[in-house]
């Protein structure tokens, strides 16, 4: 099963319609989509606006591929579950978001294993045509490595220099 998610904040009709068009052209009936408050009405893919967290997590764990906006939650979840993900960024210039942070996320993850960055709808279709050959990233764990925890603890436990300590103390007192 392929799972499409647009997130919970905004519709993303451009992504939903591109996937629906691809599914219709290839007679695919294995796509389930969380579409949020969409205006586009798909004809081929199964959709729902929202679903509770547990039901959505179950869908994610059953998926062989995820398609999503360039939201960090979707990317990290796919990496945690060891599922390949195709992302298409909302374009703020098209009024799909408030700013260009999703475009920046797409650029940042473009070459990351298991994350496949679609530049546009045509590229999305090309990636979907290769869906069976897309590989997942190395699976993330929910815990930080011990070496990172030790480094962070060392930083936290370092005493502040006197000059910075007095600034912090004044700030804490509201001065």
CATH superfamily of the largest domain: Glycogen Phosphorylase B
Shape: elongated
C-alpha end-to-end distance: 58 Å
- CATH topology assignment of the largest domain: Rossmann fold
Helix content: 40-55%
| Assembly status | single chain
Q: Number of domains in the coordinates? A: 2
Strands of the widest sheet, in order across it, are 3-2-1-4-5-6
Q: Whole-number average pLDDT?
A: 88
User: Which regions contain 5 or more consecutive residues with pLDDT less than 50?
Assistant: none
Total helix count?
7
Q: How does the major sheet shape up?
A: 6 strands, parallel
Number of strands: 6
Helix/strand-derived category reads alpha/beta
Give the strand content.
5-15%
Please trace the helix and strand order, writing H or E for each element: EHEEHEHEHEHHH
Alpha carbon gyration radius: 20 Å
Q: What is the CATH architecture descriptor of the largest domain?
A: 3-Layer(aba) Sandwich
Task: State the name of the first-level CATH class of the largest domain.
Answer: Alpha Beta
Summarize the structure.
With 175 residues, this protein is α/β, with parallel strands linked by helices. It has seven helices and six strands; from the N terminus they run E-H-E-E-H-E-H-E-H-E-H-H-H.
């Amino acid at each position: 099963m392929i799972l499409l998610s647009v997130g919970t904040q905004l519709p993303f009709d451009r992504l939903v319609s591109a996937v629906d068009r691809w599914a219709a052209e290839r007679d695919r009936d294995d796509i389930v989509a969380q579409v949020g408050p969409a205006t586009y009405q798909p004809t081929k893919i199964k959709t729902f606006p929202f679903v509770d967290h547990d039901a959505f997590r179950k869908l994610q764990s059953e998926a062989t591929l995820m398609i999503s906006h360039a939201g960090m939650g979707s990317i990290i979840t796919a990496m945690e579950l060891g599922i390949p993900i195709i992302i298409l960024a909302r374009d703020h210039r098209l009024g799909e978001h408030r700013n260009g942070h999703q475009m920046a996320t797409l650029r940042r993850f473009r070459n990351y294993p298991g994350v496949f960055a679609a530049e546009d709808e045509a590229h999305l279709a090309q990636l979907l045509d290769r869906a069976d050959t897309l590989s997942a990233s190395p699976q993330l764990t929910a815990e930080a490595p011990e070496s990172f925890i030790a480094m962070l603890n060392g930083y936290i436990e370092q005493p502040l220099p006197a000059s910075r300590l007095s600034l912090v103390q004044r700030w804490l007192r509201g001065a």
